[in-house]
Amino acid sequence: MTKNNITNVLISVIGKGRLKKDQTVGYEQTEYVFNPDTNKKYVASKTAFFGIALYEYFKEVEKIQIDKFILIGTDRSAWSELYQILPHDVQNSEDITAMCLKVYEEEKKGIQDSTLSVWQNTLTKYVPKLKFYKIKPLELGRGIDILLQELDKDGDYNIIFDMTHAFRNIPVVFSYGIMLLKYLRKINSVRIFYGAHDMINYFSDLVSGQSPVIEIPLIDKLVRLIESMATFQNSGYFVPLLEQIGFGDREKTYFKLEMNRQPRREIEEIIKEFENKQEAVKHAFEKEIVEIMYKEFCEMNRQEKLYQRMYKRSKFFYERRQYLKALVLLYEAIIVLFADVYNIKDNMNYDAREKARDKLFLEIKNIKNKKSDLNKLIKEQDEADTVKELEYVRNAAVHGSSPRGNQEYLENVEKFKILLNSAINLFEKMLKRRSES
């Protein structure tokens, strides 16, 4: 176990080796070169299995202790190559050589579970952190189950994933599976490596028999962008997305917006940063994200009135089926609109809100008494009914009580949508009447 009780887990998918061209025992080997074309280049010991080179690299170069080394392969994977993880003075011992040869011969046609178990037990006498799992090529869901089994719910993990070998569909699915694990286990970081045997010509300092090693942080970055983009699209919570595109922590700004404060200065600062980033970002996908968020904050900045911001966020949440938020915000937007129309100052104050509610109830009463000409915002009986139903449903939803109006609004989503759509249409009419008054 590493410091701070964080467990470093190396996950490697082991594939079928390429038999030696001279037909001698074993598989074609290569020297994996870490940090190619840099002054930190490290050449690992020759091997046919990249996972061994990766294990060596972390031990010798990054000085990171691998607490658990999970190997997943099929019945024809090159399990015999794992002898290289043993100390050099043990690799050529008589017992290891005999067992390794047995595994090598058997894996050509399909290694038996019993043989693989004995081989694992033999190796773990020297390297206790090894764990073997044999799966079928299309048994992809089981692979993710294996990782869940190996990672405790109470654990704290750094994941290193080797996606070099095996049938190509296996490491691809495992990559997605590991990202899913981030929601099921506590995973602090994910690092993905690829032993790029087919990319030697792209590196100037490599020679025949060597293979460059590529770390792929872009995968983790893209996943984080996907997660934060989905979070924003579904909830409006923009803090993780802004962090991913280099804005730092904007939690305070978001909190002020959620609490219906008016952080205009902070929003203007964010807009200015977006303007600078539109030219600075490297990739087209980053630029599109910046443009989307830039438009969002510009629209937010144009809504000078509190009731406008409340109304927009109500529609935002309604479109994402966050019905309670949409309901509360729409009702409050109506109250604040009444405060604005009747020049009730300091609409952030409780007493001012109550005065605005009184004006709303007065207009409803005027409708009942056939005095709609005295009203500024509510002109028809059906509009008064909509506001009353909205208030009843809002109170019942917030307090968990029965509504004074139609119970179906709280139990039937289609009925609820009819009410919300009616209230939204009414609010639009009210905005038009305000501008005409």
From TrEMBL:
UniProt superkingdom: Bacteria
Keyword Repressor found: no
InterPro entries xrefs: CRISPR-assoc_prot_DxTHG_CS (IPR013383), CRISPR-assoc_prot_TM1812 (IPR011742)
Keywords: Coiled coil
Coiled coil (residue ranges): 357-384
Name recorded for this polypeptide: CRISPR-associated protein DxTHG motif protein
Species classification: Bacteria, Bacillati, Bacillota, Bacillota incertae sedis, Caldicellulosiruptorales
